[in-house]
Specification:
It contains 10 helices and 7 strands. By secondary structure, the protein is an alpha/beta fold. The chain has 2 domains: 191 residues, Vaccinia Virus protein VP39 (Rossmann fold, 3-Layer(aba) Sandwich), CATH 3.40.50; 66 residues, no CATH class. Strands 3-2-1-4-5-7-6 form a 7-stranded mixed β-sheet, sandwiched between helices.
């Protein structure tokens, strides 16, 4: 029997829609630079790309603006789908950018999508409740010689404590959620002050086009919540013929980033 503690009251889509209210060309440019930096020297022009768990849609938009031949965006959260569609509509509803409501865990539907030159997900699979099953299905979408660009929460000894914090947030009232957000922001401001930085600029945009406030809300609310170590991700990738091209390992609480290529022998 599900308890109040197990309930999920947080909506990724609501958070993304709120983020889009103030998103500007600056955020889009940062998303484009993020893609170019991580996938360098791969050109996006002419590539077929799938954005798993598209969220706000800002990276799907950035792929489109960088000249992708085909973009497929999907999310399990209908409000996230709607957020992505908002950006699609602003671009004149381009026919080479398709948007769906769907789940990475839906095997038959995933098979119907085809194969892609670049498979991208950022901070998505660890919220499915079935991280390795979702990872396997993501790999199935990569063309031979294609690229997988992903991020996953790093594993560490604080996992149980962090999971309980997220459960507490989801079971709290609106006022309780606000207090938890404010407390976390206060810590960020104090940290900046200790490093002789302006504490009132805590919400500066990140390099990916996001901002700190919506990242904080995402972190506190995001359930289900799973983690993966670097070794686990690399072993799993090798099992399916993935070759590591680039990696940045983050501390626990952050997302480690991986770029893999898919070798011919994996087909």
């Amino acid at each position: 029997m599900k308890t109040k503690e197990d309930a999920i009251s947080f909506s990724f889509g609501e958070n993304w829609q709120d983020y889009l209210k103030n998103a500007s060309e600056r955020e889009v440019d940062r998303a484009k630079r993020d893609i170019e930096e991580w996938l360098d020297p791969i050109s996006i022009s002419g590539k077929a790309i799938i954005d798993i768990g598209s969220g706000s849609g800002i990276h799907s938009l950035a792929f489109y603006l960088l000249g992708a031949k085909e973009i497929c965006s999907f999310d399990f959260d209908q409000l996230s789908v709607d957020a992505t569609k908002t950006l699609w509509e602003k671009e004149g509803r381009p026919p080479n950018w398709r948007i769906f409501h769907g789940s990475i865990l839906d095997e038959e539907w995933i098979k119907s999508l085809g194969k892609f030159d670049i498979v991208y997900f950022w901070g998505v699979l660890h919220h499915t409740g079935a991280i390795w099953d979702a990872f396997e299905k993501s790999i199935s979408l990569i063309k031979t010689g294609g690229i997988l660009w992903i991020s996953l929460y790093a594993k560490g000894p604080r996992y149980v404590k962090d999971l309980e914090l997220k459960k507490k947030y989801n079971s709290s009232s609106s006022r309780g959620k606000h207090r938890m957000i404010s407390k976390r922001i206060g810590r960020l401001m104090l940290g900046r002050l200790k490093h002789f930085q302006n504490p009132f600029t805590w919400n500066e945009n990140t390099e990916r086009g996001m901002n700190v406030y919506h990242d904080v809300v995402d972190w506190l609310g995001g359930l289900p919540y799973e983690v993966a170590s670097e070794d686990e991700v690399l072993r799993f990738g090798r099992k399916y013929g993935l070759v590591l091209e680039r990696i940045t390992v983050r501390k626990e609480g952050g997302c480690s980033i991986y770029v893999f290529s898919r070798s011919i022998r994996s087909e």
